[in-house]
């Protein structure tokens, strides 16, 4: 696994403490979105389809750090938008690090060379660089040529300055398992700590809907990729050594071997509108004014595979990594076996959770117009960029 011992120890101690106290729903990673504006317009992104007045808003440093304190999660992921556009991002990151929280600053890396000296290397700070495959595949995914080369150069720069670096990879339709495996080899050769990987979630507001994998296709793809992970790298004779920023049971889930339901409360989201219900991926379900309200007042049983049509094809780590971690604490021998042997790549797959909603609901999922989202919440303190 691509997680340092200090992080594994502190996060493990946090989880053990919550479980010993009988806390049913606790946060593992806070998804902190300080802005939605981006300098790319990726085909599979559902986060940038907002009017100009929304894209110009920013969470203040006080609001961002207040959410970190209110939530109490041991890890903070800062996606977006593109976080490096935020002028006060260095102060937000420094405040999180000072709280001894592990922060993953997600970036497409276009601006990293310009801003990297505004940050200090720390065991608590990781740059999570967006790369969806090799040069051709990634530039196609982000709809702009040359981005892959800029990201690779930024990775080398960050590593040379002593920063922790991971790669954040989302897989879509028409992926070639051989190409993905070769890309994982290439990414690890850059000296990164690990790879975060997930099938793309079909955002309703994404510019293209034909890029997303179905649940069955995701499982088959990951089995084929993991098969290649046990073979020598082509033309080198060297055994492949991939490190993933995931638990072994989550990887086993991606390969179709675990019958997991999502635990969306394990990755609560806070952005310019407030606390987003129920998760980072469903953007049209409304907002809570406080973290406590999010946990206590959200109809959690209305979400998940087989419970809500919008959730049926989701296998994203922000929904299921928390489930895998809980399973690991409940069944440590099972978790150890999965970590040692790797994901099973043959044999029958675990069944999906049963469908509990009426078939008519599949066609009745209505999205809230983006223009109406501005009045969805009162909770977040934001500032308008002029």
How would you explain this protein's 3D organization?
The protein has helices spanning 5-20, 52-55, 61-71, 89-98, 112-115, 135-142, 147-160, 177-189, 215-228, 248-254, 291-297, 317-330, 332-341, 359-362, and strands spanning 29-32, 57-59, 75-78, 102-107, 125-130, 164-171, 194-199, 269-271, 274-276, 287-288, 382-384. With 386 residues, the chain is of the alpha/beta class. The strands form 2 sheets. A 9-stranded mixed beta sheet has the order 7-6-5-4-3-1-8-9-10. Strands 2-11 form a two-stranded antiparallel ribbon. The protein is globular, with a radius of gyration of 20 Å.
Listing every helix as H and every strand as E from the N terminus to the C terminus, the arrangement reads HEHEHEHEHEHHEHEHHEEEHHHHE
The multimeric state of the shown protein is single chain
Report the sheet-strand fraction. 5-15%
| SSE class | alpha/beta
Radius of gyration: 20 Å
Question: What would the principal axes of the Cα set say about the shape?
Answer: globular
Largest sheet: 9 strands, mixed
List keywords for this structure.
two-stranded antiparallel ribbon; 11 strands; 14 helices; 386 residues; 35% helix; nine-stranded mixed sheet
């Amino acid at each position: 696994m691509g997680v340092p011992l200090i992080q594994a120890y502190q996060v493990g101690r946090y989880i053990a403490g919550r479980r010993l106290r009988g806390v049913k729903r606790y946060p593992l990673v806070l998804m902190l979105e300080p802005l939605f504006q981006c300098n790319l317009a990726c085909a599979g992104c559902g986060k940038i389809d907002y009017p100009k007045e929304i894209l110009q808003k920013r969470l203040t440093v006080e609001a961002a750090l207040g959410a970190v304190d209110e939530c109490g999660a041991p890890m903070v992921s800062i996606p977006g938008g593109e976080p490096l556009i935020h002028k006060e991002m260095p102060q937000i990151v420094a405040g999180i690090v000072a709280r001894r929280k592990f922060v993953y600053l997600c970036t497409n890396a276009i601006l990293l060379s310009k801003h990297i000296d505004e940050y200090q290397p720390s065991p608590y700070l990781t740059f999570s660089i967006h790369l969806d495959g090799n040069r051709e595949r990634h530039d196609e995914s982000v709809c702009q040529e040359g981005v892959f080369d800029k990201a690779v150069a930024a990775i080398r720069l960050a590593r040379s300055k002593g920063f922790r670096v991971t790669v954040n990879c989302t897989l879509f339709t028409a992926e070639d398992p051989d190409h993905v495996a070769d890309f994982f080899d290439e990414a690890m050769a850059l000296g990164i700590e690990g790879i975060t990987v997930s099938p793309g979630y079909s955002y309703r507001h994404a510019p293209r809907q034909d890029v997303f994998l179905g649940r069955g296709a995701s499982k088959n793809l990951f089995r084929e990729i993991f098969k290649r992970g046990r073979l020598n790298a082509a033309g080198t004779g060297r055994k492949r050594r991939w490190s993933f920023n995931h638990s072994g049971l989550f990887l086993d889930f991606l390969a179709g071997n675990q019958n997991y339901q999502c635990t969306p409360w394990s990755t609560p989201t806070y952005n310019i509108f407030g606390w987003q219900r129920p998760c980072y991926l469903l953007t049209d379900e409304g907002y809570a004014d406080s973290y406590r309200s999010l946990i206590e007042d959200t109809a959690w049983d209305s979400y998940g595979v087989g419970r809500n049509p919008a959730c049926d094809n989701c296998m994203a780590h922000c929904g299921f990594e928390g489930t895998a971690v809980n399973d690991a604490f409940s069944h440590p021998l099972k978790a150890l076996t999965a970590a040692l042997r790797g994901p099973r790549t043959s044999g029958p797959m675990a069944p999906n959770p049963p469908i509990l909603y009426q078939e008519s609901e599949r066609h009745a999922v209505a999205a809230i117009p983006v223009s109406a989202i501005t009045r969805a919440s009162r909770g977040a303190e934001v500032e308008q960029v002029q």
